[in-house]
Amino acid sequence: LELYLDSANLADIETLSRSLPLAGVTTNPSIMAAGGMGLTRLLPALTEILGADARFHVQVLSNTADGIIAEARKLHALPFDIVVKIPAHAEGLSAIKALKKHDIPLLATAIYNVQQGMLAALHGADYLAPYLNRIDNLGVDGLQVVGDLQAFIDQYQLPGKLLVASFKSVQQVLQVLKLGVKAVTLPSDIARQFLATPATHAAVENFSQDWRAVFADNLSYD
Ligand code: E4P
């Protein structure tokens, strides 16, 4: 299972990476704009924080197949482990088809229905990103779309893996993991909720009180 943070906020990534087993980060143009930093500064800073093995999913800004192809080649030439995110619309699918011949790691993004994901997977996209919560917001069952796509990948033994995105609750993340998806990306607030453990803190405080009642501040079993 690959776990990503859906963020370009260095402070968040620094803090959360201390406790989370992150494979890397995912971004999109909105996330990059919010982070306020271009790739030239961001990628070295993220490598410093996450290590040289970190994988970065970076979305193209162009909307035409030719523009996407040119941008993907530029991103792929950077000295980082970059997966190029390409929207799964007609122009994007055309770019994915062309780029796979050059063995560039690709993620088909902004997937709102099963057929988009199927086409991207058949073109050889390495990752497929269905937007769970945004699909739900359209009145469609996002979990069903994710489940159908996972079944399609399994049925035809396609190499692409789902990297499910757009979560608004921890529960949604746990539900898609039950479907056997191989990757998820968490917004910072959901990642923080994963690390919220009030009952554990209360239990540990009880242990400490019991210990201190007998041994005061001695923190050794010797
Ligand atoms: C992922 O890479 C997507 O761009 C992103 O997760 C969309 O999530 P949102 O619906 O929270 O904006």
UniProtKB/TrEMBL annotation:
<dbReference type="InterPro" id="IPR013785">
    <property type="entry name" value="Aldolase_TIM"/>
</dbReference>
<dbReference type="InterPro" id="IPR018225">
    <property type="entry name" value="Transaldolase_AS"/>
</dbReference>
<dbReference type="Pfam" id="PF00923">
    <property type="entry name" value="TAL_FSA"/>
</dbReference>
<dbReference type="InterPro" id="IPR033919">
    <property type="entry name" value="TSA/FSA_arc/bac"/>
</dbReference>
<keyword id="KW-0704">Schiff base</keyword>
<protein>
    <submittedName>
        <fullName>Fructose-6-phosphate aldolase</fullName>
    </submittedName>
</protein>
<dbReference type="InterPro" id="IPR001585">
    <property type="entry name" value="TAL/FSA"/>
</dbReference>
